[in-house]
Every structure is written in structure tokens, then in C-alpha cells.
Amino acid sequence: MRISLNWLKDFVKINKTPEELSDLISAKLTEVEGFVDQKKLYDGIIAVKIEELKKHPNSDHLWLVKVNTGHEILDIVCGAQNLAVDQIVPLIPVGATVPDTDDVLKTAVIRGEKSQGMLASVRELKLGDDHSGIYILNDKIKPGTPLSEALSLDDVIFEIENKALTHRGDCFSVAGIAREVAAITTEKFIEPDYNAVKGTSSDHKIALTIQNQVDCPRYLACHLSNVKVAPSPEYVTRRLINSGIRPINNVVQKITKAFGT
What is the mean pLDDT of each successive set of 10 residues along the chain, which is 261 residues long? Predict the structure, then answer.
């Protein structure tokens, strides 16, 4: 089970280093198998601006891309088909590590053309499963901005052994782990906002029949209307991915944000 330090901090004040917190959880609750510091994971990866885009002379599907790093222009060979001039995209430069594969990039010559780095997809950055094209960033981000800063990738992700918690259903959520951390560190637990999903009265009637009132003495339901299903906001998507959860849509994320589950 993956636990986001930033998400934990929504429920409990944490003054421990990741190493100290890891040791405390291992000693008092369950084993922490390790943790990843995102600032280190994305070290060297920056946002760049596409200045020029031309077809590769020796390929019908590759592009020759000139990107602006904020202080120099680099030549990149790229096969993605969703690129356009003036886009802001993530660059893994020579010497940096590809998060998804742990490969350290070297200068390459691809079909006779030099490539001084790699434009990355969401999957290559370990930010999701999408590998259909390069990750297009907000066009307000300045070239040269570290990706960790541009996308607020400043989290620490703990990998917790949850087999020892199979009898602890209360620990199968961020809020549940945070409650334990609060007890371990003697800090106050901040209760989730159980009223985060607001409701209004309506004339719409929902017909329900409870056929077995012994086994099901109470059943609650609500009717949602005028809802536009759309992708989850970027900050929620990052938080879910950091916790090992596949983002679905904005309807699901509203519940997730409220309860940390």
C-alpha cells in the first residue's frame, strides 16, 4: 500500500523526517518497505518550450524538435505525434534518469540526427498510464522550471506492508493510517470533512423497498443531477497516482478527497 506524506499531513501534523516516520511506523504499526522522495525522482527533469518542429529527413514518423530550456536550445528527436510549436513539455536531459525505467539518458544519434535528451510521456514520468503522446504542460510554466516545482511533485511516497493489517480495516485508508500516526507521534488527529459533499433538497423521489429489514434495517441513497463527468483535476490525479490508485473522473474524486480513501 502506497501512502502519500502530503496527504497524511491533511490529517495530522508531522514534524518527523521521512526516515524517522518510516522507523516509527515500522516499530509501532507495520513495516515500511521503503519510500520515494519525488524531488530526487525528478531531479534534472525540466519544462521546455518547443521552438521548432520539422520532419526527420530519414524517417516518416520521427520529428526534429528544437526546445528552449531557458538558457539554451537543444535538439531532440521524438516520435510523438501530438507536438506543436510553443507547447511546454517535460524534457529528460542527458545525464538525468527516466523515472519509469531508471535509465540514465545519454546523447544519442537517431537515424543520423543527434538527440540531446528525451521528451517524456505521462507514463515515462510515472505519473499515470498514458503513453499515447508527450505530456503537454500548462503554457504558463516558464522554460527551465524543474518539473518537481512545475507540478508540485514534492511528495514522499511510503510503501507500507499491509498484509499485517488485514484485520485492521480502519487502516485501509490515508485517514486511517494518519489516525495511527497521530497516536504514535502524540499529535492531534484532524477529522476529515464528512460534509464535503453538499446536498440540497429536491422534489425528485427515489423509490426504494427494503425486503429484509432484519439484515438491512437502513439504506441510504441520493440522486445526482446536472453532473458533468470529466477528468479529475490535476492535483487530485497526482495525489491518487502517488497512492497507487488509478484516477477515474471528477465524480469519484469528490468522495476520495473528502475521506482520504
Answer: 92 96 95 92 96 95 97 96 96 96 94 96 88 93 94 89 88 93 96 71 74 91 80 79 78 54 49
Residue 249: φ, ψ to 5°: -160, 180
Length of the chain: 261
176 membership: H or E segment, kind and range: helix 174-185
Tell me which residue of 157, 149, 105 sits closest to 126, measured CA to CA. 157
Q: Which three cell numbers stand for residue 21?
A: 516516520
Nearest to 147 by CA among 156, 158, 138, 160: 138
| Residue in the structure block whose three cell numbers are 525522482 | 41
156-160 and 2-4 beta bridge pairing: antiparallel
Residue type, 239: R
Locate cell 511528495: which residue?
155
Given a contact cutoff of 8 angstroms between Cβ atoms, the answer to whether 98 and 120 are in contact is yes
3-state secondary structure 100-118: CCCCECCCEEECCEEECEE
Planar angle of CA 238, 240, 241, nearest 5 degrees: 65
3-state secondary structure of 50: strand
Inter-CA distances, 64 with 18, 49, 109, 170, 206, Å: 42, 14, 12, 53, 59
Identify any residues that bridge with 109 across adjacent strands, giving them in sequence order.
Answer: 114
pTM (two decimals):
0.69
Q: Kindly state the helix (H) or strand (E) to which residue 179 belongs, with its residue range.
A: helix 174-185
